[in-house]
Amino acid sequence: MTTSVRYERQGQVGVITVDNPPVNALSQHVRQGLLDCLAQGLADDETRALVMVGAGRTFIAGADIREFGKPLVDPDLNRVIEAYENATKPVVAAIHGTALGGGLEVALGCHYRVAVAAAKVGLPEVKLGILPGAGGTQRLPRVAGVEAAIDMITTGKFVPAGKALKLGIVDAIVDELVPGAVAFAEKLIADNAPLRRVRDMDEKVKAFDPAGFETMRKAVVKAARGQMSPVGCFDAVTASVTLPFEDGLKREREIFTGLMESDQSKALRHIFFAEREALKIPDVPSDTPTLPIRTAAIIGAGTMGGGIAMCFANAGIPVKLLEMTQDALDRGLGIISGNYANTVAKGRLTQDAMDKRMGLIEGVLDYDALSEADIIIEAVFEEMDIKKKVFAALDSVAKAGAILASNTSTLDVDEIAASTSRPEFVIGTHFFSPANVMPLLELVRGAKTSNQVIATAMKLARTIAKVPVLVGNCDGFVGNRMLEPYGQQAELMLLEGAMPAQVDGVMQRWGLAMGPFTMGDMAGLDVGWRIRKRRAATRRNDLFWPTVADQICEMGRFGQKTKAGYYLYEGGSRVPVTDPKIEQLIVEASKAAGIERREVSDEEILKRCLYALINEGAKCLEEGMAIRASDVDVIYCFGYGFPAWRGGPMFQADLIGLDKVLADIKRFHAALDDRWKPARLIETLVAEGRSFADYDRSR
Ligand code: 3HC
Ligand code: NAI
Predict the structure, then answer these.
(1) 604 an active-site residue?
(2) Distance, CA of 449 to chain centre
(3) CA distances to 52, 160, 180 from 115, in Å
(4) Is the peptide bond before 75 cis (omega within 30 degrees of 0)?
(5) What would the DSSP string read from start to end of 13-33?
(6) Whether residue 105 lies in the annotated active site
(7) Which atom of ligand 2 is nearest to the CA of 387?
(8) 602-622 vs 658-671: helix axis angle to the nearest 10?
(9) Once rounded to an integer, what is the mean pLDDT over residues 153-169?
(10) Which residue lies with its CA nearest to atom 47 of ligand 1?
């Protein structure tokens, strides 16, 4: 008998408690414990019904993902669920926290389900590149209906208890978990209620007309953009309609096995753990005391400042927004309220919630108003002199112990910190545009930033629903620094013979949210232009510097915001349209540079873009600017539209084989220029027969 599952009796009801912290994952000992406790409950003559509950903060959060990729040790989950479904006494699942994946599948194997109001249920396996492999694709449509099941299973979204009740996934909402579930079970006993097996409930699947599947599948394939698991999930659910239950289970198993072995699933599992690993900072212990953050302030109500203020208001933290003039403030607040109003119009926020959030944002013009803020984030123009003045002003008004943060995307955090008398309280908080939407938050550690400030910022990031990664202080930090050589390769290939649409097409088909030129147009081409001008004096003279981007900016074309950049965006459209004028400009730029245009293959485009990221990522690692390779992957997947199912650039390097990547980098180095000098770390790892993952594990 394992200790992670226990059985005790309350009157006529046997309570089976899963106790496997932190999230009651279905590890082998839990699966065995569930079988053992069920046998005990069935053998106990005093017991007439059973309740299954999770100890601690949640019901069961699913299979133990750490066991994936290893040989399965009996009993397998399907056998456990089958045993519960076949039980001769009614079993009630009592859900709090989250019932996810295998956790919800176990609950669906029980005869009845109750939940507390705050609970959520879901089958998020699709996000791990697999599908619910313990009957979820066959049982959920039987209780919730086929369309709702397809929606939940192909997207992995969580459903709150109230909605789960309406859908028929749970049978009742209870106020108190165990007493409520026990009372529910007692009523079943009193009513002599039947053993309601989900597998026999086929009304909803029989009523569904499979003629609609073809069109629905096309929509799923389109939305998946190359990811296999949503399509596998869809196909498995269709089997609940087209096949008898047992055959449906077999079909689910076949698709599950194929997905589990795929590189996509490995990549998604890598990102799942990488996101959590990024929270661990080797020299900042997890019990480092943090500072309380009850109020915040933002300087600058522009593109970024407004979005950052929304992040705080969304988390219920009052925030002051400071601008230089009333006009600028009104404009900034107007944009924020317009953004919220759009969300309300789409039905994703209530008017009441919008009013509450707007009520938490207060516009101010005077620095004195910031004296009580626990954190102040500067988001003014990207100019060192202005930032220094702002920080000197903050130093004189901010209370002792306030965190002074900068949203700079490239500037030296130490130089900014030096304009204050308290550099230990200064940190970079690099949000990504649009700040209220993009999950990544690069936290930039200055030379003097204290551990307490780092720990507080990491915790705060989670409070405001961001994915934080701590990086070092260098030009561009990690994400933008890697973007630089990536963008340069893309532009060099234009001069060699490619066109923007070809480069973007290759990267987009490979899975990126958008290619480099579409991304530049969206972010604003003037941003890079300003950075290039700043760096012009210090850049290497022995390299060839392409000028297409500068020429486009000189024409006043800054991308989407000016309706033209690399592409045209007529009538306010966000869809890039090829502009023959730019193609002509590119051909002429090749001629002016004395380059004979050639056909650039799609394979070359992919390799030069991807390997430029990998090589620079490795340099960030060897310099200690990134703590681990998986942090770089988190940065790219959460901040730059890199597909999570590709696992990030460093994961890709391992997957391809670092030796192969190095061979290509060396080939580019010989054929192209010194931009391709291989990172020392890659050479070392290849010489030692190691990968980025080995490197992470050894640290
Ligand atoms: N298996 C193994 N470890 C898990 C886990 C799981 N299913 N879920 C969470 N953990 C671990 C995390 O890695 C983390 O470990 P760490 O502290 O060492 O870094 C710890 O539990 C706490 O997790 P979080 O930091 O994510 O805690 P939160 O409270 O923020 O979130 C959660 C809790 C919502 C349950 C979130 O962890 C989550 O979404 N987990 C994954 C759920 C999931 O995908 N379930 C499906 C699994 S696949 C499956 O069931 C297959 C089946 O169909 C056969
Ligand atoms: P923006 O130009 O949209 O907004 C800047 C705002 O700051 C303006 O509203 C301006 O009036 C205000 N401002 C300037 N000086 C001020 C002062 N002394 N006191 C108070 N307000 C002042 O600029 P954006 O894009 O919001 O950028 C802000 C910062 O965020 C920059 O450091 C930028 O590098 C960084 N950043 C920008 C990203 C982007 O995609 N736009 C992404 C990540 C970081």
Answers:
(1) no
(2) 27
(3) 11, 10, 9
(4) yes
(5) EEEEEE--TTTT-B-HHHHHH
(6) yes
(7) 18
(8) 110
(9) 98
(10) 62
Is pLDDT above 70 for 238?
A: yes
Is the per-residue pLDDT at 577 higher than 60?
Answer: yes
pTM for this prediction: 0.95
User: pLDDT confidence of 2, banded at 50, 70, 90?
Assistant: low
The kind and range of the H/E element at 682 are helix 680-687
Catalytic residue of the set 46, 82, 125, 496: 125
Closest CA to 149 of 109, 121, 114: 121
Render pLDDT for 351-379 as a digit per residue (tens, 0 to 9).
Answer: 999 999 999 999 999 999 999 999 999 99
Q: Which residue has the tokens 């989407």?
A: 560
Q: Which residues line ligand 2 (CB under 6 A)?
A: 299-305, 322-324, 328, 379-382, 386, 390, 407-409, 430-433, 523
Burial class (CB in 10 A: 0-12, 13-18, 19+), 646: buried
Catalytic residue of the set 85, 105, 275, 491: 105
- Which tokens belong to 397? 């008004």
The mean-pLDDT minimum among 70-74, 87-91, 311-315, 593-597 falls in: 70-74
Tokens for 626? 């990134």
* Distances from the Cα of 391 to the Cα of 196, 298, 417, 419, 543, angstroms: 66, 12, 8, 6, 37
Can you tell me the distance from the alpha carbon of 513 to that of 646, in angstroms, rounded to the nearest whole number? 12
Alpha carbon 654 to chain centroid distance?
21
pLDDT at residue 186 in the model = 98
Cis before 434? omega within 30? yes
- Residue 565 one-letter amino acid: G
Nearest to 119 by CA among 181, 59, 184: 59
* Pairwise CA distance, residues 292 & 289, whole Å: 10
- Choosing from 65, 249, 266 the residue with most ligand 1 atoms within 8 A of its CB, the one to mutate for a pocket test is 65
3-state secondary structure 371-408: CCCCEEEECCCCCHHHHHHHHHHHHHHCCCCCEEEECC
How many A from CA of 295 to the centre of ligand 2? 21
The DSSP code sequence of 242-294 is HS-HHHHHHHHHHHHHHHHTSHHHHHHHHHHHHHHHTT-BTTB-TT-------
Global ipTM: 0.94
Ligand nearest to the CA of 135: 1
Could you tell me the two tokens for 689? 């027969």
Distance CA 422, CA 397 (A): 12
For the CA of 63, the nearest atom of ligand 1:
50
Cα 532 to Cα 520: distance, rounded to the nearest angstrom: 14
DSSP label at 180? Answer: H
Of 645, 663, 649, the C-alpha closest to 620 is 649
- Angstrom distance (rounded) from CA 555 to CA 547: 13
